[in-house]
Amino acid sequence: MDTENIRTLVLEAYRQGPEAVIALVVALFAQLEALGQRVTALEAENAALRAKLGTNSRNSGKPPSSDGPGVKSHPQSQRKPTGRKAGGQAGHRGYTLQLVKQPDEVQVHAPSRCGACGQSLEGVPARRRERRQVMDLPPVQVRVVEHQAETKCCPGCGAETTGAFPEGVEAPAQYGPGVMTVAVYLNQQQLLPMQRTCEVMREVFGCPIAEGTLESAVEQCHAHLATVEAGIKGQVTKADIAHFDETGLNVNGKTHWLHVASTSGLTFYAAHAKRGGEALEAIGVLPGFRGKAVHDGLTSYGQYQECQHVLCNAHHARELTFVAEELGQGWAQELKELLLEIKQATDMAREQGVAALATETKRAFEARYDALLEVGLKMNPPPASTGKAGRPSRGKAGNLVDRLRTHKGATLAFMEDLTLPFDNNQAERDLRMVKVKAKISGCFRTMSGAHRFCRIRGYISTLRKQGIPILSALSQAMVGSPPMPGIT
Predict the structure, then answer these.
(1) Which end of the chain has fewer beta carbons closer than 10 Å to its terminal beta carbon, N or C?
(2) Domain of residue 15, residue span
């Protein structure tokens, strides 16, 4: 509306009297208020979009693979310099190739003539020997064992009796458990897709197995591990400290979720179509868990109140980095540094064999924590009510402040109890190879395939944590007698 039109509108109201002027002003203020609300909403929407564009693996929970080309934003290490030199530390077990005491074959290379005068050295004893050993693989080939069941005729009654084939020898030609063990190992542990696993079996071992045969072997291994998986699940449920996390899983083109519940010595995986409460109930670990649950703060975990919750501060550190760098709020950087300072203090206390931090030290840390969150709250106050249903948006910074204030005990649990970790790296490490599987194979064709992978991979992860040879354990699993891992 131009100036002349405004002038005409005001003069007309003036001629009509005071009530008309008041009505005009009220209408204008209503329009200004509506415009202000619209501007506020647009500013919030703009901030949310800018925040979304500004997040990466360094300042949020996004994986590095989502950063895109040209973005140098790999997760920043939260470790403080230790002053130690780079490389292997004292006590670290090395893997340098060493001479063996009893080689399988010895080849002696003796000179036949003198290198100076040419005289024959045949029959001359050696003064010394220099040893060098070559570790190599012999040509790999399938070893075929033929079983023949003889039929004999009784000289007394004339009846014929046929010898029995060994257990498991059922077809005229079949692969033995050794072949199936290697195939399952390549597919489930080394994460080769079915087609490439079959190629390796054909080209390296001379065993041209079909994908259907491999799938049958995986199903057989899966069936034989049912009791072991139940044992692992039960022990994780009874653990004093357990780690929980979840990650997206592509099953036949649809997003599903792979959940992990683990300890330092046990790993239990489960696949489900849902991420939250419905999945956690169906999986059945958290409903019966009474220990200390370390996780990243997914809301669904909070419904289980009979366990102690411990939040992952690596997630908090990344979010605080975003608030500090993208939103320019200095309190966030100070709080991140405080959390890392507390971590350093707890690490030092453990190294020195101290059972707990001094009470005055903990109270000082806690006071600084509270003070910084008060600054954060002042910079991100709760928005005024809009009169609409639902809670007004707080933004990333506001939501982070609210979470750190509401869940202060779970955030600082690692300070109060030195047996608790600073982060949820245990569960994240257990999920890492699942993401590698997704990158290599793309997706699972069926949900049953995802379930098979979860059981076998959970068993393999548990074996690795406990230092049990994987291939020999899988070999026993293929024949129905898998070794039960120790309970840790």
Answers:
(1) N
(2) 3-44
